[in-house]
Every structure is written in structure tokens, then in C-alpha cells.
UniProtKB/TrEMBL annotation:
Species for this entry: Umbelopsis vinacea
Similarity remark: Belongs to the peptidase C19 family.
UniProt enzyme class: hydrolase
E.C. number(s) listed in UniProt: 3.4.19.12
Domain MATH: 60-189
GO annotation (BP), single: regulation of protein stability
Designated name of the protein: ubiquitinyl hydrolase 1
């Protein structure tokens, strides 16, 4: 029985501080009307108590239930059955409450289930009222809407009205609702039409494939933006066919974007369940954390298309991306009074259209091509004609078959908080902006464009963002075929959609009423915007080709074969999982498995160890008898059944696992599960030792009697430690006499090991991993407390001199030494710090107690390098080299790997580098990493140098020359420039006389060496220098190499661009996509005029020339984004790890990071979680810590910033991707620059 939470506005008015009711359960109550309405006035009362959902009503009716004996009603009572909309209904009432006694409970019940087909549903909006029997204008009501199904056949209100108030009056009512033991219950029901079949669906057990023929994509955390794009591309059938044509037979899914996308498309086509995209994101080089970062859809699409284009080269698919998505536009300046025009034609893959100031898509296109008049002080300098009045504009030369339109829903603004400048704020534009189902784009084409075929475009996709600036959710509406209905692709769910959902609900603007189709409405509107940000239009005359069906013939055979094989494996695993409760695992140790095992006990049963198990594993049915299992085992091993005996392995109190006793003959009739419960009830699996007879009488195997106080023999196991090979292995088992001396078994062991009979041996008892005791060979076994199942380790006796020599080789001379190594061993992954390194990546198994020098010796042995020249670096959170591990002779490997961050990897990782000098010598020298740029800025080569700290920059250049560095530009000065950059921005140029010690020692700083261009040697008096940097869409997303650039007096920008392209080394294709801006920290002004002169602009200290283009590495650093949503709550309430780190960059941005903000935001903390990463001092606030923790975020930031005005602060936080009732849902890191 379903219900809604009680609320009575007449008695308890709802306000903003009141808790919200469940979103799915909406109700209201009576309000005082100037002209009371009677519950008998059906139309008027329905309009009052039922809100307009803007849905088509199939049937409407009202039913009254007159109750003449209220006190005589049963605890659970039904009204007479009534019919509305061809369905039978009842009112279900609990006069004194359902599961409580304070409130009357009333529900509407669908009572016609028997007559309905399987899978039936009825959507109804209804209100339930209770009114005075004599005055029907005195009433209370609640309303709701519900999808009635077999699982939810009733719906209503558990807390409908307080029982004690039904018979009383108050300031709001002149008469009680129950008077003279009588009352009237009314049901007002609107049966609604369900245009999609999923109206008010709970989506429990919903089948997307069955309902729509399509399946969704799983969300990895914040990949909804990616899912919406992929579903749109998937439904662009021509694109899907092109992707299938890319050769990928020899590729790996996690390393090939093309293959991973093929697999996703294939699974979307043939799978019945939502499809995962983990392989695809891994193919981008993303780790699991990166999947929690939302990326810009436009730039993500371009990176994807570029990757696919490169893979398509010289294949049947070559050029297909351009054919499908590429259009051309012309930028021009045309003189009004003279015959002169300057123009250039550029490629585009999408069009960014303004929303602000435009009511619809047509107005956005008109605004896009609107001409600007250049006149007055803004006249155009026409070559040969001087200053002229001119028209400047853009016109389209062609539109692609598939047109992607980006609606600009975000803008930049300045936000100020008293005297503190918080920074640039990205704000959301929610203006209403309509887009049509079809649009004629011919009016926006140039006169010279090819118009032989119509340019009518049909809407095929709408990509939507719902949320606000702090986060949100992405989904898509797509019309898969020309005649299909619209579908909504929302991550793993695909549902039918109405035209209203596609258009009206995504135009933007303030919400109009309730969103009845998508959810059950709430009584209060949350400020949350939902609107289209990307539109997909198809050219109507090419739709048949673009949407032509994708058949099996279009799919590469290798792809289908590989996925079919994987599917069969998955189905087998699924079957095994479903039958898992019928089976158990049985582990068998034999003398053969013991001989191959290196470790403690007879075997390790830790399946997570990642090593080949030293035992036999069988999947056995729980109801099989031990007898049948034994027979099958013997058949498998080729041993007669009467030649073996099985022992139970038990856990001893010292946490070892040893044989305890042989299984009795009577127990062989037990089932495997019964035997496990009897002998090993705490274990999920059965563990046994298989003993093979070694003694025979009259050809019959003979086994010693089972352990007992009367038995004279003991079963022991022997391990042999080989000092030469540094290995230990099992020799086998022995039966020894209890009263025999330990030394008596030495000849037998020598014989088992193949040694001379008189070879001296040392014997040790392996009591437990941390206790390996030397045995006295003169003692008896019973005196030495040896019992069945004990393990004795032996080795050849060696001299003290040989033992010392073995230790000098960092090896282990005795059993206790070697077993201590096994106990403390850890496999460490070593990676070269720079590039592939001389030895590449490798793993070494070492002891955690090894000292730094021993670890270096082991690595040096692997690399054939001098150990004293090897330096180690621990990785940071991102998995990249972070902190150099200080060389201390007392440091152990455990301490070294504890300073590393595992970052979710299975193995601890250390980075290594082989220096040209020893670590001791390095103390007087400085390691310098230089990136040499020649012949262009795109040609990078990295060099590692070690230079005396007191030397000059000139010596650095000499060191580069010795490594063969030559500057190779076509026309250059051959004179070097050494400069530093932080976050891809030029910071300072160094003089040749500057000391090496002055170089910035920071992971954020890059040192560059380039050849000074020849043009700088001929600079005029009026020429000057500016700084240039690359960024991607936002000036805070910097990438590539920044540089210093000469501005020539009165040089038109068209000529400036040629010099810039030559300097950067970018090819024509990439250069055509570059946009130019004059950029500062807070703004970016486009440069669209080829005749513009940089020399005319008065550059401020903060302004640079910006090159805006896609970073093909996909790793553009985000230096500045803004955390203004953190401004209203106390920081001490944040989860501790949400506060990451504060970085101080003084002296023009060059400096060292300091510890995180945790000491200020958590009064209990003495330091930040990541403060150990930094070797610098903590910043202290000017206020006492106890009062500081009570401040809001903005107040705290102000205290810190006012104390350090000269420095730049970078603060990292994790915003939520989807608004919830919690502060944060999914983490993603964003750096914030607040000055």
C-alpha cells in the first residue's frame, strides 16, 4: 500500500523552512475561498483541487460516499465500487489510521485488476475529500497523480487528517468534518491519456529494449555528457557505418578509440542491457578518476573526431568525417565606396549561436551573419585605398549534411564581494530560445554557394543540460529514423518522448507549470534550469543516405566474432554465478604441489595474492559424496583409489594451516557440504591434503594409524632451502618416531634431496611466519614438541665466512633470513621518471626492510647502472612523479613506498632515474630539465642536465651543446633564449649571467630553450614584445608552449598570423582552427579583422595574445575556475578530503606550493591530508583558529587572501555533478584562482 506524507496547510502552513514532501507524492489542503465551492459542484471543485497538468484527460468523474455511522466503521473499510473511465474503483479508508493512530488514512484503490491484461496500467490524477454532511463547502482534501499497476494498485494518504480534529471546529471551519456521526467522502478522478506509455512510470524493472528497441549507456560517475553525444552519433547511421570501416582487427579496446567505439556501437545495436563505456574512456587515456570529470561536449567531440580522422587515413573511411560534418564559412570586409574586399574561407564542424538577445534559432542565424559597419574612427584601412567605410561580416559558403549547432548558454561576468575580487564567474543563460522541427538555411548562404539542392534541415537530435553552474545532468532526445517517434536517452534508460518534451520543455525560460510528463510534481519549484545546448539537424535531401539502416554486412567480421566469443564467456560466467549456491570449491594439496610451492605452510590459500595457486582446485557439487569425489579425483590424477588417503587441513591457533587427521572411512559417505560443516565450519571451501601410500605389504598399500595418544609415529613435512638459488621448496613428507631423535632423519633427508649421505644439515622448525626456530638434533621429536602436520625447513650447513659473503651480495644465507624476506616481500613497480628510460618499466620483488642503498643496488643490477647514481621519486595523486625521495642510509623500502600514492593501482610504484653523477655529488649540484624547441615551438626535445649550483646559465647552454643540441630554424640567429613558464604561460626570461641556483625548483614550472628569431635582431624603435599563450575555449585552460613575440609597427594581422604560424610550427589544417584573442585573466576579446594591427593596441601588464584551439592531448590544464557555490556554508562541515590543497605562487607566479587548507577549515587538524607532499612552511591566518573555523567560506578566504595580497592562490574543490539533498555526490577536482 502506497501513501503520501501528510500536510494540512490550513493548520500547518507550508513555507520555505518546512521539509519538502516526497517528490512523487503531492498533496494540498483546503484554503479559505471568498466564495466557497461545494464538493457537489463537480466541475468547479475539480478545477480547484486538481492542478492543470497540461495533459489530455481521457475521462473525468466524481464519486460520493455518504457515511451515516462514522463510529461504527471497521478498522479497514471500503466504499461501494464505482466506475470511472471504464475502470472499477473503490475508496479504501482506515478511520483510525493505518500503521498509526493519529491520522485517518484514505486511499484510492483500483479494483478491476482481474479484467485487465498482463502488464496493464492506468494513469489517473485524483483528489480525495472529506466534507461536512450538511455543508459541502466545509471540506479538506489531498491530491495526487499515480500510475496504477498490479504492483501499485492503491495510492493515497496515510496522514490524511488528524482524527481528533475531524469532530471539532476551529478558526478555519464553522462546522466539523464529521458531524452527528456522519460525513461525506468524495473521490474526484481524471483518467489521463498516456501518450508515451511511460507516464509517471516508476521504472522499476523497466526494459528499454523491449519498449523502444534501444538500450542506454551506463554512467561511470560523470559521463552523462559523453553518453548523450554517443547516442546522437549512434543514431547517425552513416557515421556508425564509417566507424565500422576503420581497420581495428589488431587493436586493443583500451588502447584504440576506434575499436572501443566500434564495440560500443555494436553492443548498442545488439545488446538487451545497458552498455558500458569503460573501455572507451580508457582508450582516451583516462583513469577511473577522470571519468568523474565532466568535459565540454563540443571540445570532446572535436578530440574524438580528430582521433577517428587520423585512424581513417588511407582507409576506405578516409574523408568521411569531413563529408558528414564539415561546412565552410567566409569572413569578409567589403568597402562601401570602392571596389575592394578582403575575405577568407574557413572550415567549421559546428556553429556556435548566441541565445542571449535572440528569441529563436532563425534570429540567432540572422544575428550571426549580421554585417557590422566600419565607419568614423573605426574605418577600414583598405590596401591601395586608405581608410574606407566598409561592411564586416560572415556568410556561409556551405552547410554539412549533419549540422551541429552549439547554443551559447554560458557567459562571463565579474562578481565582487565587498573589497575582495572573487574572479570571473561563468553564468548560465536560461533565456527562452525556440528551435523549429525544420529550418531552411538557404537565406544564410552566400550568393556564390551551390544551391542546386534545397537546404532544408530537419531536427534529429536535442542534447540537453539540466542543472546549474555547480553541476547538473546531461541527456538527449533523438529521432532515430525519418518516421520514428522521439526517444529520450538518459544514461542507461531509453524512453519514448512527446514533442512537448523535445521542444517546449527545452526552450529555456522560467518553468511553465508542472512538468507532468517527466516526474511527479513538487509543490515548490527548485531553481534548476533545463534547456537545449546542442542541436543536430540533418539535411532533408540527404536523410535517406544518412539514416540508411546499418546491417550485419556493415559490421566487420572480426568485431562480431570477438564480441560473440566474449558474450559466450560472459553467459557461461553468468550461468556459473547463478548456480554458485549449488557448488563449492575443494582445494587439494599433494606432494607434487608442495614441491612447487615457495612460501609458508604447505600452500597459500589467499586467492588475492596474484600468484599461481600451489594447490589443485576443483569445483564440486555440494551434494556429491566424498566417495564419489575421491573416485573422480583418483581418475583425474591416475592413481588407484586405495592408494590415497585424504587429510583435513585445519586452522591452528597460531594462524597456520596444517593437516590434522585423516578422514575416517565412515565419513566418505557424507556429502561434501556435510564434511565441510563437520570439519571446517568456518571455511567456505574444503581444504584437504592428499597422501599417497609409500609402503606396501603383499602389494597392498599400508598407511600408519591415525594420530592418537597411542600412536608412535608423526607425519611431518620437509622443506629445502637452497642457498645458491635463493629458493625454498617442498621435499615431501615423512613419518618419524615420536621418541626418535631429530638428527636421525638427516640421512633420509639427504637421500630425498639427492645429497651425499653425510652432508651436514641445519634444521629449523617453521612454527609460524614470525617464528622460525633452530632445532636441536639431539632432542627427540616429542621433546621438541613436534606433532602431526608440522613443517621442518632444512639447508646445507655453511661457514660464517660464506654467510657473510652471501649477505654482502644482498642475499640470504639462512632459512630464518630467507623466510623473513618472504614475509616482508613486496612487488614494486619501477617506472622511468622521464620517457621510456634506459630500462623501461619493470617489477622487482623486494623486502620491505631493505635499505635505500640495497634497493638501489637491486635496481642498478636490473639496469646495469651504478647504484649510487640512481635516484627515486614517489608518485603523487595523479600517478605522475611528485616527490624526490631523500637519500638516507637508514631509509627502508617500506618508508619509501609509504611516501608513494598507490592511486588505486595493485602495486606500489616508484619512479627511477639514472643520474650522470652520484647522489652524494648531487648535493652540490642542481638537476635541470630543459625542453629545447627547434626548429619550431612544436618540435620539443627534453634534456636532463646536472650542473653545479654556482655556475651560470651560459654553462647550461654549453652542457646542451655537449649533448648535440643545435638550433635548426631556416632563418635564425642561432642565439638561444632561456625562459621559464608556469601553467603554460611565459613568466620570465633568464640572462646568461644568472646563476643556476636561481632557476625555479617547482613541478609547476617548465624551463625552455629556443632560438631567438632573426626578426628580433632587426626590430625597429616602435616595435615591442608581447607574450603569447595557447588555451582551449577558456583562458584558464592553457596548453602547449608559450612564447615571447615581436609586434611590428603597423603590421596587418594577416601578416602577423603568418609569422605566428611559422613560429609555432602548426600545419595549415590545425592553424585554420585557431581563433585569436587579446586575453587577460578575466576576458578574451576576439580578433576577427585581418587588417587589425597589434601595434595599435595598448597592452596592459595582464594582457597576452591568446591562441584558442583544441589541445589534442586532451590534457589542457585548468588553472582557473570558480568555487562561488561554496560561499554560504561553514567549511568545517565539509568532508575533510573535499578540501584538497592550497598553492601559493609568489613573485609573479613563480614559487612553491604549500600545505593544504585543512588546518584552517578543521579545528582538530594539525595539518592537511596532503601537506606531506610539500617541503615548505605553513601559512598561518591572522585570526585565532577557534574563531576562524566558525566563519563562512568567503570570510575565511578573505582572511587568508588579505594576509597574502602579493600572492596567487589556487584552491581545489570537488563540486557535485548532480544536485542532491547532500552537499556533494560525486568528486571531481577543479582548481580555483581567487585573487
Amino acid at each position: 500500500m502506497q501513501d503520501d506524507t501528510y500536510s494540512d496547510p490550513a493548520l500547518e502552513p507550508m513555507n520555505d523552512s518546512a521539509p519538502l514532501p516526497d517528490n512523487d507524492k503531492i498533496m494540498s489542503d483546503v484554503e479559505q475561498d471568498p466564495q466557497p465551492i461545494s464538493v457537489r459542484d463537480h466541475t468547479e471543485i475539480a478545477n480547484k483541487v486538481l492542478p492543470d497538468l497540461d495533459l489530455e484527460v481521457e475521462t473525468f468523474d466524481v464519486f460520493h460516499w455518504e457515511i451515516l455511522d462514522w463510529r461504527g466503521l471497521e478498522k479497514r473499510t471500503h466504499s461501494p465500487e464505482f466506475e470511472i473511465g471504464g475502470y472499477k474503483w473503490k475508496i479504501l479508508m482506515f478511520p483510525h489510521g493505518n500503521n498509526q493512530t493519529e491520522y485517518t488514512s484514505i486511499y484510492l484503490e483500483f479494483s478491476d485488476q482481474a479484467a485487465q491484461p498482463q502488464g496493464w496500467h492506468v494513469c489517473a490524477q485524483f483528489a480525495l475529500l472529506i466534507s461536512n454532511p450538511n455543508d459541502p463547502t466545509e471540506y479538506a482534501f489531498h491530491n495526487a497523480q499515480h500510475r496504477f499497476t498490479a504492483e501499485e494498485a492503491d495510492w493515497g494518504f496515510t496522514r490524511f487528517h488528524e482524527v481528533r480534529k475531524l469532530t471539532s471546529i476551529d478558526d478555519h471551519r464553522a462546522h466539523p468534518l464529521v458531524q452527528d456521526n456522519r460525513t461525506l467522502i468524495t473521490a474526484i478522478v481524471r483518467v489521463m491519456k498516456d501518450p508515451t506509455g511511460v507516464l509517471w512510470h516508476s521504472f522499476v524493472n523497466y526494459d528499454s529494449k523491449k519498449t523502444t528497441g534501444f538500450v542506454g549507456l551506463k554512467n561511470q560517475g560523470a559521463t552523462c555528457y559523453m553518453n548523450s553525444l554517443f547516442q546522437s552519433l549512434y543514431c547517425t547511421n552513416y557515421f556508425r557505418k564509417v566507424v565500422y570501416q576503420i581497420p581495428t582487427e589488431n587493436d586493443e579496446p583500451t588502447k584504440s578509440v576506434a575499436l572501443a567505439l566500434q564495440r560500443v556501437f555494436y553492443n548498442l545495436q545488439y545488446s538487451d542491457a545497458p552498455v558500458g563505456t569503460t573501455e572507451l574512456t580508457k582508450s582516451f587515456g583516462w583513469d577511473s578518476l577522470e571519468a568523474f570529470n565532466q568535459h565540454d561536449v563540443q571540445e570532446f567531440n572535436r578530440v574524438l573526431q580528430d582521433n577517428l580522422e587520423s585512424k581513417m587515413k588511407n582507409t576506405p573511411a578516409d574523408g568521411a568525417i569531413n563529408k558528414l560534418f564539415l561546412g565552410k564559412m567566409k569572413s569578409y570586409i567589403k568597402c562601401i565606396n570602392v571596389d575592394y574586399e578582403s575575405s577568407r574561407v574557413e572550415d567549421y564542424y559546428d556553429i556556435q549561436l548566441n541565445v542571449k538577445g535572440c528569441n529563436n534559432l532563425e534570429e540567432s542565424f540572422k544575428e550571426y551573419i549580421t554585417e557590422e559597419t566600419l565607419e568614423g574612427d573605426n574605418k577600414y584601412m583598405a590596401e591601395g585605398f586608405g581608410l574606407q567605410d566598409a561592411k564586416k561580416g560572415v556568410i556561409f559558403e556551405s552547410f554539412p549534411p549533419v549540422l551541429h549547432l552549439q547554443l551559447k548558454r554560458f557567459e562571463f561576468d565579474m562578481m565582487r564581494e565587498t573589497t575582495v575580487k572573487v574572479g570571473v564567474w561563468n553564468y548560465r543563460i536560461n533565456d527562452r530560445h525556440e528551435f523549429p522541427l525544420e529550418i531552411d538555411l538557404e537565406p544564410y548562404l552566400s550568393a556564390a554557394a551551390d544551391k542546386s539542392k534545397p537546404h532544408k534541415y530537419i531536427l534529429q537530435g536535442v542534447l540537453v543540460h539540466s542543472g546549474d553552474l555547480s553541476g547538473g545532468h546531461y541527456f538527449a532526445f533523438v529521432k532515430p529514423t525519418k518516421d520514428a517517434s522521439w526517444l529520450k536517452f538518459d544514461d542507461d534508460r531509453v524512453t519514448p518522448a512527446t514533442l512537448k518534451e523535445v521542444l517546449e520543455e527545452n526552450y529555456g525560460g522560467e518553468p511553465q507549470g508542472l512538468n507532468a510528463l517527466n516526474s511527479r510534481p513538487n509543490i515548490r519549484t527548485i531553481k534548476r534550469f533545463t534547456n537545449a545546448y546542442m542541436l543536430v539537424y540533418l539535411r532533408e535531401c540527404m536523410m535517406d543516405e544518412i539514416l540508411n539502416d546499418v546491417t550485419t554486412a556493415d559490421i566487420p567480421p572480426h568485431l562480431k566474432r570477438r564480441l560473440d566469443e566474449e558474450r559466450l564467456v560472459m553467459e557461461q560466467k553468468r550461468k556459473e554465478r547463478s548456480e554458485m549456491h549449488l557448488y563449492m570449491k575443494t582445494y587439494i594439496i599433494t606432494d607434487e604441489t608442495f614441491a612447487k610451492y615457495q612460501g609458508f605452510d604447505l600452500a597459500s590459500f589467499d586467492e588475492k595474492a596474484g600468484e599461481t595457486p600451489a594447490y589443485l582446485s576443483y569445483r564440486t557439487k555440494k551434494d556429491d559424496t566424498l566417495e564419489s569425489f575421491k573416485n573422480a579425483l583418483c581418475e583425474n590424477l591416475g592413481v588407484p583409489a586405495d592408494h590415497i588417503r585424504l587429510w583435513i587441513l585445519v586452522n591452528r591457533q597460531n594462524r597456520t594451516v596444517r593437516p590434522d587427521a585423516p578422514i575416517l572411512d565412515a565419513d566418505y559417505q557424507l556429502t561434501m557440504e556435510q564434511l565441510r560443516e563437520k570439519s571446517q565450519p568456518s571455511q567456505a571451501n574444503l581444504r584437504l591434503y592428499l597422501e599417497v601410500a609409500t609402503r606396501f605389504e603383499n602389494d597392498q598399500p599400508v598407511f600408519p594409524g591415525p594420530p592418537s595418544p597411542r600412536s608412535t609415529s608423526i607425519l611431518i613435512f620437509i622443506k629445502m632451502f637452497d642457498v645458491e638459488t635463493q629458493s625454498i621448496y617442498g621435499l615431501g613428507h615423512l613419518y618419524v618416531e615420536k621418541n626418535g631423535k631429530v638428527g636421525d632423519i638427516i640421512p633420509t633427508i639427504n637421500s630425498m634431496a639427492g645429497f651425499e649421505k653425510e652432508t651436514p644439515l641445519l634444521l629449523f622448525e617453521e612454527i609460524k611466519p614470525t617464528m622460525i626456530d633452530r632445532m636441536d638434533t639431539r632432542q627427540t621429536f616429542i621433546r621438541a614438541e613436534i606433532q602431526d602436520g608440522d613443517v621442518i625447513c632444512v639447508q646445507k650447513s655453511i661457514s660464517d665466512e660464506k654467510a657473510q659473503a652471501i649477505r654482502s651480495q644482498h642475499q640470504f644465507p639462512t632459512v630464518p633470513d630467507f623466510l623473513d624476506y618472504l614475509l616482508k616481500r613486496v612487488t614494486v613497480q619501477f617506472k622511468p621518471r622521464y620517457g621510456t628510460g634506459t630500462g623501461g618499466q619493470f617489477d622487482l620483488t623486494l623486502s620491505r626492510s631493505m635499505l635505500y642503498d640495497v634497493v638501489a643496488a637491486k635496481v642498478g643490477e636490473k639496469l646495469n647502472a651504478a647504484p649510487q647514481n640512481i635516484r627515486f621519486t614517489a608518485p603523487g595523486v595523479s600517478g605522475t612523479p611528485k616527490t624526490v625521495i631523500r637519500h638516507l642510509q637508514s631509509s627502508t623500502l617500506l618508508e619509501m613506498i609509504q611516501s608513494a600514492v598507490y592511486n588505486g593501482a595493485n602495486l606500489p610504484t616508484l619512479f627511477y632515474e639514472v643520474l650522470d653523477i652520484s647522489l652524494s655529488e648531487l648535493e652540490t649540484k642542481k638537476q635541470v630539465k630543459v625542453t629545447v624547441l627547434t626548429p619550431t615551438l612544436s618540435d620539443e626535445a627534453m634534456y636532463d642536465l646536472v650542473l653545479p649550483k654556482d655556475k651560470k646559465i651560459a654553462e647550461l647552454l654549453q652542457a646542451l651543446e655537449t649533448k648535440g643540441v643545435k638550433f635548426e630554424s631556416e632563418t635564425g640567429t642561432r642565439l638561444p633564449r632561456i625562459y621559464e613558464a608556469v601553467q603554460n604561460k611565459f613568466i620570465r626570461e633568464l640572462d646568461m649571467g644568472d646563476p643556476i641556483s636561481s632557476l625555479t625548483d617547482s613541478a609547476y614550472c617548465t624551463l625552455y630553450a629556443e632560438e631567438i628569431p632573426e626578426e628580433e635582431t632587426t626590430a625597429g624603435e616602435d616595435d615591442f614584445y608581447i607574450l603569447v599563450f595557447h588555451y582551449q575555449k577558456e583562458t584558464n585552460r592553457t596548453h602547449s608552449v608559450p612564447f615571447k613575440f615581436l609586434v611590428k609597427k603597423d603590421e596587418p594581422f594577416v601578416e602577423t598570423k603568418k609569422r605566428l604560424q611559422k613560429r609555432t610550427g602548426m600545419d595549415d589544417k590545425d592553424w585554420a582552427r585557431v581563433k585569436f584573442t587579446i586575453a587577460s585573466s578575466y576576458s578574451a576579446t576576439p580578433i576577427d579583422d585581418d587588417e587589425f594591427k597589434l601595434s595599435d593596441h595598448q597592452f596592459s601588464k595582464d594582457e597576452h595574445l591568446g591562441l584558442d584551439h583544441v589541445d589534442k592531448t586532451g590534457k589542457a590544464s585548468r588553472v582557473v575556475t570558480h568555487a562561488c557555490n561554496l560561499s554560504s556554508f561553514p567549511f568545517h562541515q565539509l568532508p575533510k578530503m573535499m578540501l584538497y590543497k592550497l598553492v601559493v605562487l609568489g613573485d609573479g607566479g613563480v614559487g612553491k606550493p604549500i600545505s593544504c587548507l585543512d588546518p584552517y577549515f578543521h579545528s582538530n587538524a594539525s595539518g592537511g591530508d596532503n601537506s606531506s607532499e610539500y617541503d615548505t612552511n605553513e601559512v598561518k591566518p591572522e585570526r585565532p583558529i577557534d574563531s576562524f573555523t566558525k566563519l563562512t567560506a568567503v570570510e575565511k578566504l578573505r582572511v587568508l587572501f588579505e594576509s597574502h595580497r602579493h600572492e596567487q592562490y589556487y584552491y581545489v574543490y570537488y563540486p557535485n555533478d548532480r544536485p542532491t539533498n547532500r552537499l556533494y555526490e560525486q568528486p571531481r577536482s577543479v582548481a580555483t584562482d581567487i585573487k
